[in-house]
Amino acid sequence: MQNGTLLAAIDLGSNSFRLEIGRYHSGHIERIEYLKETVRQGNGLDEEKNLSQAAMERGWECLARFAERLHGFKRQQVRAVATQTLREARNRDDFVRQAQAILGFPIDVVSGYEEARLIYQGVSRLLPHSDEKRLVVDIGGRSTEMIMGQGYSARAMESYHLGSVAWSTRYFPRGQFSAAAFKTAEVAAKAVIEDALDRFPPAGWTVAYGSSGTVSAVADMLAANGWASGVVTRSGLDWLLDRMIKSGSAEQMRLEGLKDDRRPVIGGGVSVLRAIFDLFGIEQMLPAQGALRHGALYDLIDRDSDGGDVRERTVNWLAHRFSADEAQGKRVSTVSTALFAQIAAVDAQNGRYSQKLAWAARLHEIGTHISHERSHHHGAYILDNVDARGFSLPELHRMSQLVLGQRGKLRKLEAAMQDELFAKQLMALRLAVLLCHARQMPEHESVKLAYKPGVFRLATNPGWAKRYPQSAWLLGEEVVAWQKSAWKFTADIR
After folding, report:
1. Claim to verify: residue 136 and residue 225 sit in the same structural domain
2. Considering 255, 288, 321, which residue would you say is the last residue of a domain?
3. Do 331 and 250 fall into the same domain?
């Protein structure tokens, strides 16, 4: 990556949307601009986990303003990441589809595990490099991420379903504060995170850091009222709780350092933070400068470097973890991407789809680790449910659908196949699996694939069918399989 390159990260959180723009220089990022808008999408989830129209429109309006600022940025310069609210929302596809059209860039809905990885990456990059063992806590609107690591390496990560928005709504309705409400909220928080003591034992870390909104807000309030700057202490939290209870409500709370956008969710945030302090026996926590958006920025740098893309390392790990035949995966990857290139115009977008096809091809046999029977179903299930570093949930799902469709009937993918690029990927993968049936590199250069709207056409050089009779027969069967889909496939096998 060239020095001076502008990079941007967007964090679509449950409480706020944030845009961070920085300039790359020699492995580091210098902040150029930071924008934050309180959107409170987390409050817009109804009992059936659907985002309200009002919540979606608040998000779209914010992203329209961000889009204006990002005019002129290229796709590889921007990463937008959505977290817990959109992980939960049943109608997230409706929101994301419109949001991407407004923003002009893809939006990655990431798993809690991937969110935690990015948070730690952002926190560690903005701290002085040291060998200290760290516990990083990020209390978001609807989820709380905890990470234990050293240097730039995270050793343990977890995401828990509690946060400032969720706990404020559940335990402090209408913003009312009482000692009983705080007690209930803290007990409930401990019940959610009690297994964290085993995952992040106090003996495994020496310094606790708090990332993002809640810890930063609490630190600001304490500092503005005479407490030590840049630290949240147990005694400071006790003092803050007493002030909150005496005020009776968030609306009536008069406290230096409390910002209006934090007021509606401060009760939930403080109760979760106190529960973590109590459970882990923490005496003090340091506010971290880095956060999820900074991790996303540094991830853009990694993706631009040779071998730096964490997704490549994840694919290697998955193939090894599930004992996939590495050589066969590479053969299918090579053939499938070569066929895809024949029917997809060479541009940046299709290059990304080619990469995802290559990853799916390398992982197409991971389901055999469970059972050879219905292995493509098992492989798809693994990809839909695994914690895969670097991948968004939609990326994993698309790869799972390709693995599912590598063979067998196409009816199971009827909805996905309405997408032309997916149909092209699937055609290339199925043909590659077919041609590599002997587990040797086939003579795929003699196979020509063409496409015009709705129709795939395959042709071979004269004599190919005689040299490879089994492959020729399998291609004939494949033509029949596509006759039962919305796509037409013809083959001139000579």
Report:
1. yes
2. 288
3. no
CA distances from residue 353 to 93, 98, 162, 217, 401 in whole angstroms, order as listed: 19, 21, 35, 41, 13
Is the per-residue pLDDT at 306 higher than 70? no
Asked whether residue 489 is assigned to any structural domain, the reply reads no
* Rounded CA separation 221/215 (Å): 10
Say whether pLDDT at 50 is over 80. yes
Q: In the sheet where 284-287 sits, what is the strand order?
A: 153-160, 144-150, 133-139, 207-211, 284-287, 232-233
pLDDT score recorded for residue 6? 96
* 185, part of any domain: yes
Residues 227-254 pLDDT 10s: 999 999 999 999 999 999 999 999 999 9
Domain annotation covers residue 179: yes
The closest of 403, 407, 417 to 486, measured between CA atoms, is 417
Please say if the pLDDT value at position 212 is more than 90.
Answer: no
- Pair (150, 278) in one structural domain: yes
Return the ∠ at Cα 16 (arms to 33 and 383), rounded to 5°.
100
Contact 8, 107 (CB under 8 A): no
Task: Name the residue range of residue 378's domain.
Answer: 309-442
pLDDT digits (tens, 9 = 90+) for 329-379: 999 999 999 999 999 976 666 788 999 999 999 999 999 989 888 999 999
The pLDDT score that the predictor gives to residue 47 is 87
> What's the whole-number mean pLDDT along residues 148-176?
94
Same domain, residue pair 386 and 238: no
Domain count, the chain: 3
CA distances to 332, 366, 370, 377, 480 from 373, rounded to whole Å, are 20, 12, 9, 9, 22
| Backbone torsions φ then ψ of 419, nearest 5 degrees | -85, 120
pLDDT in tens, 372-407: 889 999 999 999 999 888 999 999 999 999 999 999
Residue 132 lies in a domain: yes
In terms of domains, do 278 and 329 share one? no
Same domain, 26 and 68: yes
